[in-house]
């Protein structure tokens, strides 16, 4: 395997395919992650995934990724807009992180326009539904390859 990547998902993403399908689509998180793993395998990338509704568990997962991962694709869900703890965990781990969102957060409620984690991420892929994950992973891989 060329790279090891964590796909990290925050609160309510376990409800994909059920929750507001007009906004988030009909695919389950499991379907998206399985398709993303197939995409990654074609590129000889090892992909691990984790989802939690708990902020502390997400922080722990970032700390753990420091030990094995080359980078993180992260959909922090609503914690994107509120969590200094996640921001600090990303900064401490010093791993490249791409923030992803299914919806275009900038076309939604004003409170979703500010990301607490974006300043410590490589970039943001948002508004492309399930494809935000694929774009985020590809951007992360391009970044890692450019560092070789």
- What is the fold-level CATH name, i.e. the topology? Rossmann fold
**Low-confidence parts lasting 5 or more residues at pLDDT below 50?**
none
Q: Please bin the fraction of helical residues.
A: 25-40%
CATH class value: Alpha Beta
Mean pLDDT over all positions: 93
List keywords for this structure.
single chain; 148 residues; alpha/beta; Rossmann fold; five-stranded parallel β-sheet
Question: How would you summarize what this structure contains?
Answer:
The chain contains five helices and five strands.
What does this structure look like?
This protein has 148 residues and is of the alpha/beta class. The chain has one domain (3-146): Dehydroquinase, class II (Rossmann fold, 3-Layer(aba) Sandwich). 37% of the residues lie in helices and 19% in strands. The protein is built from 5 helices and 5 strands. It has helices at 21-24, 29-42, 55-65, 84-93, 131-146; strands at 3-9, 45-51, 71-75, 97-101, 123-126. The chain has a 5-stranded parallel sheet with strand order 2-1-3-4-5, with helices on both faces. It is globular and about 40 Å long. The mean pLDDT is 93.
């Amino acid at each position: 395997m060329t790279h090891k990547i964590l796909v990290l998902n925050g609160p309510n993403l376990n409800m994909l395919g059920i929750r507001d399908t007009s906004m988030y689509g009909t695919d389950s998180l499991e379907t998206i992650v399985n398709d993303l793993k197939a995409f990654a395998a074609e590129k000889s990338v090892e992909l691990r995934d984790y989802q939690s509704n708990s902020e502390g568990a997400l922080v722990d997962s970032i700390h753990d990724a420091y030990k094995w991962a080359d980078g993180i694709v992260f959909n922090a869900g609503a914690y994107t807009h509120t969590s200094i703890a996640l921001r600090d965990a990303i900064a401490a781990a010093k791993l490249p992180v791409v923030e992803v969102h299914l919806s275009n957060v900038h076309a939604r409620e004003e409170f979703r326009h500010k990301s607490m984690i974006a300043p410590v991420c490589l970039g943001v892929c948002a508004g492309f539904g399930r494809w935000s994950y694929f774009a985020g992973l590809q951007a992360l891989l391009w970044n890692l390859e450019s560092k070789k």
